[in-house]
Write a structure and sequence with these properties.
heterodimer, A: alpha+beta, Alpha-Beta Plaits, five-stranded antiparallel sheet, 7 helices, B: alpha/beta, Rossmann fold, four-stranded mixed sheet, 14 strands
């Protein structure tokens, strides 16, 4: 005989799981959308849907278990689906991963002239999947980001070795003008290590509701000081953010 | 009228405020007025440094927004401004200071002012959706880079830009900032050539600065008599007029030396120096004491040369008095060491007075030697004195130059300026 009270309790739990799943799916897909905001809109939509589907699959499996139903078949189905997605999206996923590493470790940026895998030209776009280069014949060459992980890339931009590009994110509670002038004053103490023909230049990348993204461009005197200068500049930026926030 | 906005027309000049526009303001205000009157613009917003003014006020339909800086910051900003100004005019000494300027604490204050300006422009743009940003002069050069907008950006370089005097180690920062603009406007062809040589890759345009001829009226004999009495100019005095702010760049010392040399042959010669400090050089503005120091040096020089009673320092004068002084003068002199353009020469022409013009001014390319004026070398005091005497002794020649000058002045009228600027803006905006 069916225990009505137990069934009702299970249904309530199932409902709670579905509600939590609904919230998690919305939060997850929205976070993914934000993360992919600079990608092609179609790719961003696809990524949001994938997160949404994944969260709901996990939620439904968990919900079925709460109801006491056997979810193994569904679990196998989800596993197979996941494996299929990974295999079919292997290249885009690799490229996305490579994009992260090229961003951090491969020294070039939009506007630089590079040479890689027999192609050379000016970098005009760096997206999640590929880096787009305009070659000497005005052809657009799309180079998958994974290329930069296994091929030798040469940045032929004059003075590229001198450039130190520091990404900066400042909360909107910080006075941007005050922050900028304080950083410039702080970096002035290190001026012997920089090429003085180039002032520190902050470039605004985006301004969101919560924070402002900037890059700070500096030119160093000695290439071997690159790492230590980057660490020092970042330390001074963090200290300036704290100090400007405290003096508010 | 917006909440909290002050309408300048509701205040009384010289009581509630003092209107002392510099060259840029004198030019841009009539442009905006004409553009609004003719329907070319619906709304114009003007963002500039104004430490003592209200945060927002309106003037002839233009909304002016003041950027305020604390006194400590004003000093640093002012020092960078003066360094750039001095270097562009080729007079600054001390290469080390100029070389390290971009890493100095003062430059951080200059960047601070520019960032405040850029952020205010960005905020205004988010509500007004501007079609175009038009940035005037070197004080706001980094703003174009800082506002980071895809909308068209024009920069007008008002001061001299000659590759021979601008330090080559400034090429990188100058080109970084200049290249953030779609179009750079300058007052002389040679400046545009130099700007390109310094690495600017965008479009350039030459537009002569302009004035509104209607703003210059012929004074009555009574007004001339009154101004002569005020400044102790006697009936038989031969008056040479210099209209320029009190600044070593303006070369008033050359004018006094030339007067001293010329007065040996013409003892009734009188030099009238009109103008006081600029915004930077005045106590009301950046608080730099440059103009007072310079005036003191000029007074001392006149005494040393024995011509103290022949040199009149009028300080700031009202437009009506200035018109009367032009009328009372025999000729005008612009002895600047270097001059971005030299609108006072146009004023001289509009007042039918022959000008002696420094050859190192943008307007020198409009001066046809002996036809509408005479060019002088500001470093050649004997030459200035000689040309001064030559013109003072030939009234027919002066009148001929004045007549021709009136024709040349049309090239610098607000109508021509508005036409050129409107076309330039339409080309850029696509209207």
């Amino acid at each position: 005989m069916v225990d009505i009270a137990s069934l009702l309790t299970s249904l309530v739990y199932f409902g709670i799981v579905l509600a939590i799943t609904w919230v998690a799916a919305h939060v997850g897909s929205s976070l993914m959308g934000r993360q992919m905001s600079r990608s092609t809109p179609a790719v961003a939509v696809l990524a949001r849907r994938a997160v949404w589907l994944l969260v709901w699959s996990v939620g439904v499996i968990f919900g079925l278990q709460v109801l006491g139903l056997n979810a193994e078949v569904l679990l196998v189905f989800v596993a197979v689906l996941g494996a299929g997605v990974i295999v079919s999206l292997r290249n885009p996923i690799e490229n996305m991963g490579s994009r992260y590493f090229t961003d951090v470790y491969v020294p070039f940026r939009v506007g630089d002239s590079i040479s890689v895998n027999g192609f050379s030209g000016k970098v005009i776009e760096m997206n999640t999947i590929s880096t787009v280069v305009l070659d000497d014949q005005n052809h657009l060459v799309s180079i998958p980001n994974t290329t930069f992980m296994h091929d030798i890339t040469v940045n032929v931009t004059p003075r590229a070795w001198k450039e130190l590009v520091v990404p900066v994110v400042v909360g909107n509670d910080i006075d941007l003008a005050e922050f900028e002038s304080q950083v410039m004053k702080s970096l002035g103490k290190l001026q012997a290590h920089f090429d003085k023909r180039f002032p520190p230049v902050f470039t605004l990348k985006s301004k969101g509701a919560q924070s402002t993204e900037l890059t700070l461009l500096l030119y160093i005197q000695s290439p071997e000081e690159r790492d230590v200068m980057l660490a020092e500049v970042n330390k001074r930026i963090t200290a300036t953010i704290d100090s400007v926030r405290k003096t508010k | 009228m917006r909440r909290g906005e002050v309408r300048l027309s509701s205040l009384k000049e010289d009581l509630d405020y003092r209107f002392s526009p510099g060259g840029v303001t004198r030019m841009v205000l009539p442009l905006l007025k004409h553009m609004q009157r003719s329907g070319l613009t619906k709304e114009a917003h003007w963002v500039s440094l104004n430490p003592t003014g209200p945060s927002t006020f309106s003037l002839d339909g233009t909304i002016l927004h003041s950027i305020r800086l604390e006194k400590s910051r004003l000093r640093g900003y002012g020092m960078v401004k003066e360094t750039i100004l001095g270097r562009a005019h080729g007079i600054a000494e001390g290469g080390a200071a100029a070389r390290e300027m971009f890493w100095s604490e003062e430059f951080a204050e200059y960047a601070h002012y520019n960032r405040l300006t850029a952020e205010l422009i960005r905020r205004l743009d988010s509500t007004h959706d501007f079609d175009l940003f038009y940035i005037h002069d070197f004080q706001q050069l980094p703003v174009g880079h800082m506002i980071r907008s895809l909308k068209p950006k024009i920069f007008r370089w008002h001061i001299p830009f000659e590759e021979s005097v601008i330090p080559d180690f400034w090429a990188e920062p100058l080109s970084t900032y200049l290249n953030s603009y779609d179009l750079v406007v300058a007052s002389a062809g040679t400046y545009l050539d130099s700007i390109k040589k310094f690495g600017y890759r965008g479009k350039t345009r030459k537009v002569y600065p302009y004035v509104d001829p209607a703003a210059y009226s012929r004074p009555t004999p009574a007004e001339v008599a009154e101004v002569s009495r005020s400044f102790e100019i006697r009936r038989r005095d031969e008056v040479v007029l210099v209209v320029a702010r009190m600044d070593p760049l303006k070369g008033q010392d050359r004018a006094i030396r030339a007067l001293a040399a010329a007065s040996r042959e013409m003892p009734r010669l009188k030099l009238v120096l009109v103008g006081n400090g600029s915004f930077s050089g005045s106590g009301l503005g950046l608080g730099l004491s440059k103009s007072e120091v310079w005036r003191g040096a000029l007074v001392k020089l006149a005494k040393e040369l024995g011509v103290a009673d022949q040199v009149v320092f009028t300080g700031h004068v009202r437009q009506q008095q200035l018109d009367a002084l032009y009328e009372r003068s025999a000729l005008t002199l612009l002895p600047s060491i270097r001059e971005g353009f030299g609108l006072v020469v146009v004023e001289s022409w509009l007042h039918h007075r022959a000008p002696l013009v420094t050859s190192r001014a943008g307007i020198a390319e409009l001066v046809k030697e002996g036809e509408n004026g005479t060019l002088i070398d500001p470093d050649d005091v004997a030459g200035i004195s000689e040309k001064m005497l030559e013109l003072l002794g030939d009234s027919e020649k002066r009148e001929g130059m004045a007549r021709e000058g009136v024709r040349t002045a049309k090239l610098c009228s607000v109508d021509v300026g508005v036409r050129d600027e409107s076309k330039m803006i339409a080309d850029l905006v696509g209207g």
